[in-house]
Amino acid sequence: MNKALLMFCFAILIIPIGVFAANSDMQMQEIKSEFQVIDADKNGFITPNEMQAYQEKNFNELDKDKNGVIDRNELTVDKSRELNKADQNNDRKITKAESASQFKQYFDQLDANKDGKVSEDEYTDYWKLRWKF
User: Fold this and answer.
1) What pLDDT score was predicted for residue 1?
2) What pLDDT is attached to residue 17?
3) Burial of 12 (0-12, 13-18, 19+ CB in 10 A)
4) pTM of whole model > 0.90?
5) How far is CA 116 from CA 13, 106, 109, in A?
6) Cβ contacts of residue 62 below 8 Å, gap of 6+?
7) What pairs with residue 93 in β-bridges?
8) What is the DSSP string of 65-111?
9) Minimal CA–CA distance to 11: which of 67, 75, 65?
10) Which terminus of the chain has fewer Cβ atoms in its 10 Å neighbourhood, N or C?
11) Pairing, β 69-71 against β 118-119
């Protein structure tokens, strides 16, 4: 799966729009806040199960008509042009399966030390790098 697809899926399903605010201090506060929300058991680490639960919650929120897919009508204008990158089978929709298929790769990218969990430092470091590009 390509990096553009991973970035798109994460942007629409996990990271809130406000995370890309102009002020880097504000960005870091948003990222840390997002980490705390995803870390459901509040132990300082995000597990694959916590990340997947959060991703599924966000998918369900975006799936306005509750038909199990996200289509152009459910995306904001600025996100709709990215639909083609995430649509693996070119049916102009993002299914739960397409959304979930990028999960393992994305989690592995976050888990820098490969211990099966993501610390707040790993999470914030990942996004600091993304902001540079």
Assistant:
1) 47
2) 43
3) buried
4) no
5) 21, 12, 11
6) 12, 13, 70, 74, 75
7) 71
8) T-SSEEEGGGS-HHHHTTHHHH-TTSSSEEEHHHHHHTHHHHHHHH-
9) 75
10) C
11) unpaired
Higher pLDDT, 37 or 85: 37
Quick check: 24 pLDDT over 60?
yes
Q: Domain locations in the chain?
A: 3-16+23-132
Q: Which helix (H) or strand (E) holds 17?
A: none
Cα–chain center distance at 25: 20
CB-based contacts of 11: which residues, under 8 Å, 6+ apart? 79, 82
**pLDDT, tens only, 30-56:** 999 999 999 999 999 999 999 989 988
Q: Which two tokens stand for residue 81?
A: 């042009």
Summarize the confidence of residues 50-63 as an average pLDDT: 89
